[in-house]
Amino acid sequence: MKNYTNIRHINCCSATFFLLMITVFCLNAQTRDEAFSTVTIGFNTLTNTNRNTFHGFWKPETGYEAYVRVPVQFGSVQFGIQYIGYSAKSAKQPDFKTSNWYILWEKEWRLFPRLSWSAGGRVGETGMDFEKKGLDINPGQLSETEFSAGLHSRLSYDLYRNYTINLMVSSMRIYTRKRINMVHFSAGISRRFNAPGFVEALFK
Amino acid sequence: MTIVLCLLLSLFGYGVEAHPRDTEKPYPGTRIVTSDTIQRSGITRLADLFLLADDWDISTIDGYNWQASGNGLSTFQNQNWILMLDGQRMDIDLIGMKNINMLPVSLDRIESVEFISAPKLHAGEFTDKGLIHIHTKEPEPGLSLKAHYTSGNYTGDPGPYAHTEFATENVEGPGPNVSTTVEYGNSHLFGSIGFNSQYHSSRDIEILRRNPGYDYELIRGWIYQPSCTIGLKTRSGSHHFFYGSTSSDEPGIIPGSASNSYLFFFRPAGKEIPIQNHFTHSGVTGSVNMSSEKSITYTVSYSDKQLKRSKHSEFEDFNWRSKSYDSRVEFAHDGPSINVKAGAGFTRTSLITRASLTDNYLDSYKIYGQLNHIIFHNIDQTLDVFAQSCNDKHGIKASLIHAADVSGRHTISSVLSVSQKLFEEDNSLWFWVDRGYNFLEDNDLKYTIEESFGKSLQFSEDVAAQFAINEDVTLEPSVTYRVFRNLYLEKQQFRWNSEERTFYSPTTVHNGIDGSSAGAALGINHIISQAFKHRLYYRYRICTGGDRNFRDELNTIPEHKLFYTADFSPGSGFSLQTRLTYLSSTTWSDFKDVSQHDSGLYNSRIEQQTFIDIYLKKWLLSRKIQAGFLFRNVFGEKVRYHPFGAVFDLSFHVQAYFFFDSIALN
Q1: Inter-chain residue contact A144 with B153, CB threshold 8 Å
Q2: Do A178 and B163 touch (CB under 8 A)?
Q3: Secondary structure of chain B: what % helix, strand, coil (to 5)?
Q4: ipTM tops the 0.90 cut
Q5: pLDDT tens track of chain A, all 204 residues?
Q6: Cβ of A93 and B156 within 8 Å?
Q7: Which residues of A touch B621 (CB under 8 A)?
Q8: Which of B215, B255, B425, B610 is the most buried (most CB within 10 A)?
Q9: Rounded Cα–Cα distance for residues B386 and B394 (Å)
């Protein structure tokens, strides 16, 4: 019963967050800051920091993330992939790799001339590829994909010209039957380019 | 009743204005879903159209086959509503199953869909059981390409926990579904060639636990649907040819598609049967203008459908192939104040089976007429009469429609109908069992038919109004009343037999069932701004009389139903739609003992449920591509439509429409 209450609580939190996101989305609907004028390409290394039931079975390895970000009429949209492996703590479970394809929306606030903070939400699909490694695994269960969604926050420091150092934290839930909650810290560098014409043509 | 209401309003000083009948006017029980509504909602398959028909009730076990009831015109048992595509009746029925996804047309080709749930004459059919009419778009000038892609993910897979003590069954999402169409059009000629493919899997825990013997290959499959249209327009009329086919047993067209069966819940067996089916339809419909006022319309069509069990199934083959020929001709005179229609039609349905039948075909003849005229200033009246003869039995159906326009802002209309329904009209399993079809005996599925099948009688009254409070707010109240006499209904007592691991129950078909129901609904449309509009719809329906079997059936339909839809379109081709659904609890008496199953997954009562869907879409490439994300049941409530049905958790769908119109002009 306690677990069930917990799930309900988490569901309510998710619901509240989702509604807040929509509200923020709506409130910012009229702002139009350099939409489609730039393209930012970035690369991060990431680590999974939280611990829960899932981590009783698997130990996370260092992961990598690559993304492309484009400012839109309200905030910016980021497309990316996170790749991270998990090694089993017991021989009963297989090692596996995850690749999380996501789309992320965020709103940025400039705190200081060179420092900005942004926050937003993300949804995506997490693919899981299991290593058979002598285990009796049905071939149909060697790979799986599940919906994931979460929150995202980024602190960015403009380093030199169009180069930026980024620190990011994301809280993500993978919607397996027994939900998996993940918190990832990541750090990396990105470079901003003037957007080629097709970017604006694509989004308009 | 409408006349009285209109007279009262006239007495209170509302202006009146004479006008000929506007066929686009929203009459009671007519809900029109446009392509814009479809694309705003983010629905991914044809069957999802039911989610947009506020006054239709729906039920599903696997999320792929849906049962529908048009505003109380029938129960979920009798899937005898009529399906039409561009004026042609589409005979997709397969012994009690009517899966609208079998129709070889894609969502991107739909112009509008009419959901008719009040009895009246429509395109040569009488809609006393409900009717869904899909209209497709005419191609744009020149060469055009259209495509639609959807793929979904039901949450709830075990993920890595599959290899731990928390392991559960895998679930699979709908799709991918892909459709592509090449179109050409000019002022005289148009045509299209299309191909759709759908993928469906029934890997829901609630289905798998009842059918433990079905391996993965039996519960998933691809559906392929080629189609073709040719249209001709001349000064004297237009002609439209359609060919479409649906097949679920052509292996290997898409790499990796080794198996192509999917599960069909066959009620007399109390379980799902892996099936494969074919459906082919070809037909021509057209109109010839004899003068500016007189025209003749015609339809000739042929359909062939076959139901087969998968070769790995434990059941004997269905041995069922049905062909039908349908033809109709109609004369219409559109005058300044009087419109007249008169028509006649013939349908032959034949069953090809190894079973020895007393007669392997059924002929049905119909004649009908419609008179529409202005009777009093702003009130027009339509009288529809429809006579049918099947198997030397005859039935008459009639409806009387009044529509009033008050001061150009408000409308009130009513539909009063009486119809005799022949048992033969349903073309049901029991009709062919009565003639010797022996699938049930071959599979040792026991049944009893109490008393003989006969003609049933239906009386209905629908009244609806539309009040424009101001330019931004519209109220749409409506009431309905239905009386049924001499219906037939199936009764079973599904009970878990732990030794034989089955829910099987013998079927008893009861005849002579009477009952009545009443309902009221209110729709409120409010435009807050150019960017934001919303709609609230509430419906209440109760059983007002009848014997126990009828009441039991009505209890499977929610008494209270509420939808709230909010559309937000801030511009730049971005829009967001949120839809809240509330359904009150339902009780399924045939399933009252199903909770005995050791999994505890089944219950005869489905508790009230509230869920929210959100669809975000964005136009790209100057409105050539529309990309969208659909979140169904975002709060992860336990959504269920049937005691044996899957529980639908949060699901995530991606879809894209591609509209490359007039890429090469003449």
Answers
A1: no
A2: no
A3: 10, 55, 35
A4: no
A5: 334 444 444 454 455 555 445 444 444 433 334 788 899 999 999 999 999 999 999 999 999 999 999 998 889 999 999 999 999 999 889 999 999 999 999 999 999 989 999 999 999 999 999 998 777 777 777 888 899 999 999 999 998 889 999 999 999 999 998 999 999 999 999 999 998 888 888 877
A6: no
A7: 201-202
A8: B425
A9: 11
